[in-house]
Amino acid sequence: MKKIFPLILVLVAIVFASCDMVNEDNRYIYVKPKPIGRAVLIEDFTGQKCPNCPKAHEEIEKLQAQYGANNVIAVAIHSGPLAIFPIRNIIGLRTKLGDEYYKAFGVSVEPTGMVDRRGGILNYPSWAGAVNTELQRTAPVGIKLSISYDNTTRKATVDVDASGVENVAGKLQLWIVEDGIKCRQDMPDGTVKPDYVQNNVLRAAVNGTWGTDISVKEGETVKQSFTTDISEKWNADKVAIVAFIYNDGGGVLQVVRKSII
Fold it and tell me: Which of 110, 111, 191, 204 allows an S-S link to 56, with CB 3.0 to 4.6 Å?
């Protein structure tokens, strides 16, 4: 044992000496983030007085069945002259927010929409091809949502983690959407369905009409937090947050959706 102990000390000294010989700049090797899959955003401009709009809703359902609802995320923007504002005894889904988007993007007919805000306003039969093209691309940024909801105050806190696969600068947009709203809808056969189920309905923007600035570097995670009110007119069990990052050059870079409950 007396002979072995000094030998151990010598070996330990050699190991530490070897470590000291490695330049500090070479001790940590940067690993580039792995590519991540892209989800696709369909902004569906629609209205309750639009008889062909249910066909566009069916197209969204087909795409979600084909690719998965987490990969094809739709938001129904009730807007324009074919939409109905809520009035006494009538459930209307048109909003001033939706009308602002309707005008800003130059929508003239419904049903039409945008797929990742690339390629302009498209008729709904063209959505399938655009969605397929977008899903082939990887996302330069990842988004993770954590949501806590207080049923007493009806306030939701939304924490956003944005992780850069590449350097990204643009806008972070958070929308409140609601499913399962039963109300009137003009149908393709010329009838009016009084209890048509409307899904993906845009209710409000959490962080302004055009979102808030965000910049994420490659390999970095940026955190942002928002608090928003959930109206008593909305069914909290059917409410979700849609969050996406976009910029003028690349359109929508990534999108996620998460229920508040």
Answer: 111
CATH code that applies to domain 36-259:
2.60.40.10
- Band the pLDDT of 26: cuts 50, 70, 90: low
Q: Which of 12, 90, 47, 87 is nearest to 187 (CA)?
A: 47
Find out whether 126 and 208 touch, Cβ atoms under 8 Å.
Answer: no
| Count of other CB atoms within 10 angstroms of residue 137 | 15
pLDDT digits (tens, 9 = 90+) for 104-144: 999 999 999 999 999 999 999 999 999 999 999 999 999 99
Q: For the chain, first and last CA: distance in Å? A: 65
Q: Measured between alpha carbons, how far is 170 from 244 in angstroms, rounded to an integer?
A: 10
Opening angle at CA 101, ends 159 and 121, nearest 5: 110
* Per-domain boundaries in the chain: 36-259
Q: d(Cα 30, Cα 160) in Å, to the nearest integer?
A: 25
How far is 50 from 256, CA to CA, in rounded Å?
Answer: 28
Q: How far is CA 189 from CA 7, 49, 53, 81, 193, in A?
A: 92, 13, 12, 20, 10
125 upstream amide cis, omega within 30 of 0: no
CB atoms within 10 A of CB 220: 13
- Which neighbouring-strand residues pair with 255? 244
The conformational region for residue 68 under phi > 0 = left, psi -120 to 50 = alpha, else beta, is left
